[in-house]
Amino acid sequence: MASASIPPVHIARRGLMLVISSPSGAGKSTIARNLLEKDKNISLSVSVTTRARRQSEIDGIHYHFISKREFERLRDSEALLEWAEVHGNYYGTPREAVEVAMAEGKDMLFDIDWQGAEQLQDKMKADVVSIFILPPTMTELQSRLHRRAEDTEEVIQTRLANSRSEIEHWRDYDYVILNDDLQAAFEAIEAIVKAERVRRDRRHGMFDFVRELLEEVPALPVR
Ligand code: ADP
Ligand code: 5GP
């Protein structure tokens, strides 16, 4: 904590685009939810999707659930920053919310697949911090999909079959976390966020801060 006589110093920085991917069921939504609850400086990028809403999901909070026609309209009018077909449905990131958050230096979290991560890396490399979550075993991945109890057996089988192509992209990410223990995985993500926030190339306010710091030197009383 800063001493009472030292006013808090704010150094302006660019916002983080925190991209989290994993095969379905590895735990990325659980980890993302914990992070959003604990760190109020991060907001979730709410994607649009053509997939059917799960029982536990709320329209506008977890996703914007839209028709295929509406999705195509958004995509064709460049309103999506990235988009992909995943497990037979369309998903995309609305552009405007991201541009507003980045301009204000706010951090945003993206729960998107490898195709989306690749598109964001290409377009906004300097701002993206990408994290891949792996399950400890494929048997455990399968159990988690069943324990989540939100999808039909057919949907679970599609997701398991697609897990290989998702996992094969693990090397394209900045960080890889093994989610065997949820608390440990969460702490690793917190550590990444903390470190990435103080990266030099993100903190454009540091130039003015250091200049002003050095301007003080000639005025210092000799002790
Ligand atoms: P994803 O978003 O990657 O598809 P979820 O976050 O929905 O996965 O997690 C799938 C299921 O696994 C959920 O029921 C969740 O509570 C559970 N889960 C997540 N992480 C762990 C863990 N480390 N150990 C045991 N169960 C977990
Ligand atoms: P789910 O149907 O389980 O919510 O998500 C299925 C997959 O789609 C997950 O890998 C999730 O990360 C991904 N996904 C969700 N939203 C988007 C998005 O806007 N763009 C992309 N490319 N993938 C997304």
Structure overview:
- This protein is α/β, with parallel strands linked by helices and 223 residues long.
- The protein has a domain at 17-45 and 106-213: P-loop containing nucleotide triphosphate hydrolases (Rossmann fold).
- The protein contains eight helices and nine strands.
- The longest helix has 16 residues, at 182-197.
- It binds adenosine-5'-diphosphate and guanosine-5'-monophosphate.
- Belongs to the guanylate kinase family.
- Its EC number is 2.7.4.8.
- Its main location: cytoplasm.
Summarize the SSE layout with pairings.
Blueprint (H helix, E strand, L loop, with lengths): L16 E5 L6 H11 L3 E3 L3 E2 L14 E2 L2 H9 L3 E7 L2 E6 H9 L3 E5 L2 H10 L4 E7 L3 H11 L4 H15 L7 E4 L3 H16 L8 H10 L8
Parallel strand pairs: 1-7, 1-8, 2-7, 3-4, 8-9
Antiparallel strand pairs: 3-6, 5-6
The chain binds adenosine-5'-diphosphate and guanosine-5'-monophosphate.
The site of guanosine-5'-monophosphate (5GP) has 16 residues, from β5, β6 and α4.
Number of strands: 9
SSE ordering: EHEEEHEEHEHEHHEHH
Radius of gyration: 20 Å
Bound molecules: adenosine-5'-diphosphate, guanosine-5'-monophosphate
Give the oligomeric state.
single chain
The DSSP helix count reads 8
What separation lies between the terminal Cα atoms? Answer: 27 Å
Describe the structure concisely.
This protein is an alpha/beta fold.
Main traits of this protein?
223 residues; alpha/beta; Rossmann fold; five-stranded parallel beta sheet; four-stranded mixed beta sheet; binds adenosine-5'-diphosphate; binds guanosine-5'-monophosphate; cytoplasm
